[in-house]
Specification:
By secondary structure, the protein is an all-alpha fold. The protein is built from nine helices and no strands. The chain is elongated and about 60 Å long. The relative contact order is 0.10.
Length: about 200
């Protein structure tokens, strides 16, 4: 039974149930302690400013607490929290940079053989160069690549996080990889040719 178990030893999902169903709001601190560093690092990877990242982290956890009752236990709590984090950061950047996303219809498809080649290129990029390339991408392109490759989220989880169909997510990943490879080749071609 959950009540006899030390709350710090509970799974995330058990802690959520205690907070929501038993109204043990003080236990939300357990989830905060488990994820604050990850949410902060994810935030700073988008905004590149420590003070703003701290504010975003605070706001993300406030939103998480307020919306905890909406957590449906269909995915892991960590996946749900990362979805909130990505969406919150993307919304922040949209509002502050007036960034307008292209619709899926405006973008061309990337053939599968070209997509495989792009993925191999990305895995071969030097870490510093890859970081610079990711920072050059639009926020939605960077986010989807981080979700897929850094956080190892499944297409299904990304689709739920971004409220898009799985086929749309696959297409966005392909396009983002293609753009990353193109940016890398344009920016660092001279280094590759001198090797």
């Amino acid at each position: 039974m959950l009540t006899t178990k030390n709350p710090k030893e509970c799974t995330d999902e058990e802690v959520v149930r205690l907070v929501v169903e038993k109204r043990k709001h003080d236990l939300f601190g357990i989830l905060y302690d488990r994820y604050v560093e990850k949410v902060y690092h994810k935030s700073i990877s988008f905004v590149k400013d420590e003070a703003i990242a701290q504010d975003l982290t605070h706001d993300i956890f406030l939103k998480t607490f307020v919306n905890l009752i909406k957590f449906n236990h269909e995915s892991k709590f960590s996946t749900w929290l990362y979805s909130l984090t990505y969406n919150f950061c993307i919304d922040y950047i949209r509002k502050n940079k007036k960034y307008m996303y292209q619709s899926d219809e405006d973008l061309k498809d990337v053939p599968d053989d070209e997509d495989e080649k792009n993925e191999q290129e990305i895995f071969q990029m030097e870490a510093l160069r890859l970081s610079q390339v990711l920072d050059s991408l639009e926020v939605d392109e960077k986010a989807i690549l981080l979700m897929k490759y850094q956080d190892d989220m499944s297409i299904k989880d990304i689709s739920e996080a971004l409220s898009a169909s799985e086929s749309a997510i696959k297409m966005r990943i392909k396009r983002s990889k293609a753009k990353a490879v193109d940016l890398y080749q344009k920016n660092y071609r001279y280094e590759r040719e001198s090797l």
